[in-house]
Amino acid sequence: MGAYMLKRLISNVLLVAIAASMAYFLAATSLNPRAKYEGRQPPVAEAVVDGVLDDYNLNDKTPVFERYVTWVSGVVTGDLGKTWEGKEVNGEMGRRIGVSLRLLLIGTIVGSGIGVAVGAYAAVRQYTISDRVIGVTSFVIMAIPVFVIATMLTIGAVGLNNALGFTLLEYTGEYTPGLSGGWEQFTSRLNHLILPTISLCLGQIAFYSRIQRNMMLDVLGQDFVRTARAKGLSRRKALFKHALRTALIPAATYFAFAFGTLLTGAIFTEKIFGWHGMGAWLVDSIQQNDTNAVAAVSLFAAVCVLVAGLLSDLAVAALDPRVRVN
Amino acid sequence: MRSKVVLARLARNPQARYGLVALLLLLLLAYVGPFVGAHTWTDKDFLAFLEPPSAEHWWGTTQIGQDVYAVTLRGMQKSIVIGFLVALFSTGLAALVGAAAGYFGGWVDRALMWGADLLLVLPSFLIIAILSPNLKGGSWLWFVVLLAAFSWMITSRVVRSMTLSLREREYILAARYMGIPGWRIILRHVVPNLSSLLIIDATLNVSAAIIGEASLSFFGFGVQPPDVSLGTLIAAGSGQVTGYPWLFLFPAGLLVLLVLSVNLVGDGLRDALDPGSNQ
Amino acid sequence: MPILEVNDLNVTFRGGIKAVRGVSYQLGQGEVLGIVGESGSGKSVTSLAVMGLLPPGAEVSGSVKLHGRELLDMPEDELIGLRGKTIGMIFQDPLSAFTPVYTIGDQIAEAVRIHQKIGKDKAAKRAVELLDLVGIPHPDVRAKAFPHEFSGGMRQRAMIAMAIANDPDVLICDEPTTALDVTIQAQVLEVLKTAQRETGAGIVMITHDLGVVAGIADRVLVMYAGKPVELGTVDEIYYRPRQPYTMGLLASIPRMDRPTARLIPIDGNPPSPAALPPGCPFAPRCPMRVSACDEAEPDLERIGPGTRMSACIRSHEIELKGLDGATIYPVPEAPAETAEPRPRAERDTVLSVENMIRHYPLMKGAVFKRRVGTVHAVDGISFDVAEGETLALVGESGCGKTTTLQQIMQLEAPQGGTVVVLGKDSATLARADRKALRRDLQIVFQDPMAALDPRMPVGDILAEPLRAHGHKDIGARIAELLSLVGLDPSHAQRYPQHFSGGQRQRIGIARALALEPRLIVLDEPVSALDVSIQAGVINLLEDLKVRLGLSYLFVAHDLSVVRHLADRIAVMYLGRIAEIGTVDEVYGRPAHPYTRALLSAIPLPDPDLERSRERILLEGDLPSPADPPSGCRFRTRCPKRALLGAEEARRCAEEEPSVVRLAPVVDHGAACHYPEEAEVVVTSRH
After folding, report:
1. Is A299 contained in some domain?
2. Is A58 within 8 Å of chain B by CB?
3. In this complex, which of A223, A232, A316 lies closest to C91 when CB atoms are compared?
4. Is residue B117 in some structural domain?
5. Nearest C-alpha of chain C: how many angstroms from B174?
6. Which of B68, C40, C156, C214 could lock B59 by a disulfide, CB 3.0 to 4.6 Å apart?
7. Angle of CA points C378, C382, C384, to nearest 5°
8. Per-residue pLDDT tens over the stretch B13-53
9. What GO cellular component entries does it have (chain B) (predicted)?
10. Within an 8 Å CB–CB cutoff, is residue A217 touching chain B?
11. What is the model's pTM?
């Protein structure tokens, strides 16, 4: 197992390195940070711009390979370079990762937990009204892109707040600035979390519930469920003890995939609800021609994808004795 | 014979039936609808800016006086074309790469799957977002290629693992023992026997591509003006959604309906083509 | 009073498919009732209906009484008190019948705790006791293992342990040994008998294997197309069948004790349950059919005294005239042997395998893969096939016969040793030579479902080898091939799924013949077929060999079929050849203890013989091919070893025996230090 993990770690590090490098080259050749300075009033002298860009390792007059070497030598020592306005990418990224992880963690836990429960329930009640309602609802939700869900949620919140005459549901930012007292801060943060969480989780719940329902139904027809009933277990007990547990295995293999869609969903959720996380940064950094930030976001995304894959494999190994080695 | 059975099963499946009818109606709307409306999508009515839906402008007008009905249908055409093209390319690519990797094994397998891994790890959203606005000239066709290039990997893994089990099937062994070359076995035996999976996958890829296009266009990274797609229209409309909801609701509603109907057809196809599975 | 009484049981699935039609039987205390039938005869559905475990959507009517209580209209919460307690069930495939994520011990303990109010510890202890009872070594350790860590035989033992956990009165066994090798089957049947002694339960034994039933059942119910067609004691059914289907079934089985008799196939196929003929469902295939047969379906009626029942309007006539299968079914003519074949030594050698070795890396884990050892799949075997000869390669799963066959078919250099096909060494073949050689070397596969591409019409399937090797006039050749194997040439446009199993296997044979090969490798060509169909395919293979002068390398596990078809036989065990020689020699005077055990384990469709014969039961499972025993590979299970002195036994552990010719005959060798000669197969008095 140790040797295997090491091999996997090496290949993952290699993949991340190549992915990040490709993203860097792409960003360094396509984006134009100079534009940020050129359009200014009063105009800034070219030499001055060059100097600033050189400082930030963003000057397009330096050969791209040279910039890359500078960037890499920074990255291996843990320095991701500077943003277009000269801030440390590291600091910015640290803050933003905190923001994003909060959303992603909640999205994963709530999404998979509720999704699996709903799917299992639907499978057990197959062909009943509740199964059909769950099925249709999850189908419709899966057809709605996150940005439409998020926009609809804000419309709803605005409408509700207007009707009530006060702000019941917050829909911009992480918290209301200028609040005193820990408790008020806390409730404000919770309030700000509600809509983004819904926007992120709805799709995940729909996805997991469909997967879990299908997997359960696959398992329901299998011999071991029949054996469990032949032993004298009631249908319900056989389903919960034998079918649900076994059907979790294939669902766990979908975790990596679901996490990928969650990452994309986070981009829209953060942008639309005004959260300053990594997702929002991805869009902002491109729009601001911020090469080093783009590379940093790519690095983060690549690591996330690989970690999700690893977690997915670990979850499968934990659930399925057949794939464990010992 | 088999296609008849599949069609019969498809018709018996209510979900698929609704999906198919809805999809046909939407296609009809997209391609025949513009001839019914009074305005073309390039017309600008300087007497009506941001008008709500009326007899003159069925779905209202934009801030530059465009007819929302005409513009939305135009955008829908583009979204549909992009969706189908991307699905075609990405499923085709997935089938070839996955089948080759699974059938030949060894270094071919390792190289192809490593490439798939790399593309999975690359943040596709970001790459397309950077590349696509810069690919002037070929415009939206390049965008199609990019979307397809980033959407085949997972299917190719499924195709590969199915090929691995197909490869041990006796009819494949029989072909190999007859001395038939590998690529011909792939084209004649492997890919046709995965056709159920591929048809289902292609269908679901259509809706994934439509959403993907809209997502990128939402931030201005996808279809570039003067072209319009449902994504660009939703992006434009979402900014003014509280005051002028028709700008948002019509394109967003059509997008959801389109994706929903394609998904319903895909799910029905899965039941019809693959009766063993409940998926 | 019978403990289980089934009366006029009918099961109809969605779409009006009548799977079971009017089954009635009674089961007494300690009695074994065999239910026999081919696939699709409704025998398994009957038992699921009794258990109340049919999938939703199945309509059941009639009556099932357990200790006089009606089960069919019993509410579910009362039924679950009976299932697993009063009725136990043993399923066919023990791998899928256990939940993969719980340990065997937990699953058995669960069965105990459902019906008995005892603590977890006690239930776990009881599970270990039960595992011990069914003969699982180190039961306390094995109880903690997961189902996938058990071998097939061990899993089936565990399944039996679970079924008898609550001392049931009725045990329903649904093909309990079908998935197992013969020596393991013999062990499991022994365990079943033990279980019956322990519990005193009545057993319903469902199987397609007439040999198994002959050895274990007291009474037999024969089913055809969802209907019982004959019921009687085991002797009555086997020695005096009174229904043409039963008679045909018994006549079509290849028998080890009557190797030369031509097999008698039953023409046609069982009817589809969705399209039953109006009268007797067997009438279309029946040699005794008269017009009255098509008018009404005959019921199971008493014939003669006792409980003897038969569903045939001519049963009395059969009884009166004393007819049997061989007299009412037309015996197919054997093709005339053109001339006495030349002695073996003068004929060409079409295949020669010398010291062939094939090892695989052993990988473990699906997600965290790593190499944990080497599988010695084939470890130095030698044999040859002369022109016009059939060599059978037999052995149980894991013995390396399939690997041997694949290595030969690949026509590539083996890891060790040589493979010479038609005088050409596979190691030195150029690409073009290899392709040319493939014309002469063809294969017929085991599973007729998997061997034909379901997306190609039969004509295209047959055309594929012809096109690949540049044939002209393909259409005519396809028609010729189809009629050669007894199919209608006009069916070339149909797809494989429109043919029955036997017909598909004929298509597979036609494909192998397309290029007029000289050597055909037969990979278990009849083991997936029902016996009545199997006989026809065996006859076809025999005929083709004579007519076309073919040589066969025949891989099989069914020693009765081998006895029929082969001239010579090589018995494999754990990657090595244990014994090789002409069939007469090996079957008549088996010298290797493994061959002897193998032959004695085969169930014979003859109740008298089954009762009187002495079985050599092997201990334990096949050792892992990744870690074969030192010296003689068979020594860990060898029944002979107990009889040897310490000095002699040491030789077994230290020195690996090689195949040596046995003194008196030319063509018979065994890889045993202490070979033996005595007869094990006895012939029937009937």
Report:
1. yes
2. no
3. A223
4. yes
5. 7
6. B68
7. 130
8. 777 888 889 899 998 888 887 787 777 777 777 777 777 77
9. plasma membrane
10. yes
11. 0.83
